[in-house]
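Minutes, project huddle
Topic: does the predicted pose make sense with NDP bound?
PN asked that the exact inputs be recorded in the minutes so nobody has to dig through chat later. Recorded below.
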Amino acid sequence: MRAIQVQEVGDPSVLQCVDAPTPEPGAGEARVKIEVAGVNFIDTYHRRGWYPLPLPFTPGVEGAGIVDAVGEGVTEVAVGDAVAYGMQTGSYAEYAIVPSRILVPRPDGVNAQHGAAAMIQGMTAHYLACSTYPLKAGDTCLVHAAAGGTGALLVQIAKLRGARVLGTVSTAEKARIAEAAGADATIRYTEVDFAEAVRDLTDGEGVEVVYDSVGIATFDKSLDCLKPRGYMVLFGQASGVVPTLDPQVLNQKGSLFLTRPTLASHMLTRAELEGRASDVFSWIAEGKLEFRIDRTFPLEDAEGAHTYLEARQTKGKVLLTT
Ligand code: NDP
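Predicted holo structure (tokens), as shared on screen:
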């Protein structure tokens, strides 16, 4: 089979397409014939060695396709099922071995593209808005990179929950995309002081929660956007890693809460995984959640997909097709 392999960490050119043996599923595993692999920022952290994986490895933590073979003891899926999954490395390939407990059947109305896009970015937006800080009517939130893959979904789910949404973006085109997703106001954070803009937009009060996936470039100012006892939700580092923090800062800025969540700890049981996926898939099928597929690259051009993502170009989901 064709698979992307990283033999040494580095820039996008380390993503080489190789011929690899088609893998066999073991007990509790299924082999998925990948139709579409989702490209996520975390793949760039793996490729760079920021989140180290044993070398060599096949990147990609999100995929959708058809179950092609199952190992012993698999009960959740059967050969021929249309499935999607997230949080298992190895989806940049024609076939992937996946523990069957994390495979989710795709209902009618959810195609492979949407399935692949839903399992990391959709599920992340879900847990952020529904679990980490469960938004409610009357809340105002700030979503950074609001036109990005995860950002635009978070904006939509925040609106479904009745919150007011302020979104930061780097360009006028991205502002239009975030507003189309439902943002009540957008802030061009590359041009203006976004903390001041948030104060202006909230009559000086600040927001209940900041969802920050940008990291070092936004972290300090994000703290200044919060109301007393507000929630700082740092869930990514697209601009770089946030350095160590003195907890006293949280006291000085108004008894703030700080969390650094990850999807893995929000799909701990089969019931939790199925519950979140069911919400996301139903919202897709009912037309309440729109997945904007931005660019699709052939598997062989994973390098192009990463270059695009890191050049700050994304305006929705980036996919690889086999
Ligand atoms: P996006 O499509 O959102 O792309 C990242 C966006 O970040 C860009 O479009 C850009 O928007 C903004 N950005 C700001 N500074 C930079 C920079 N220096 N380089 C590149 N982009 C920059 O990607 P994803 O939706 O895949 O991921 C978004 C974030 O969410 C990532 O940080 C990722 O790690 C995190 N994440 C975390 C998860 C978790 O559970 N903790 C799970 C999934 C994703 P703009 O141009 O408008 O600034």
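Observations noted during the meeting:
- The two ends are 10 Å apart (CA to CA).
- The longest helix spans residues 112-132.
No decisions taken; revisit at the next huddle.
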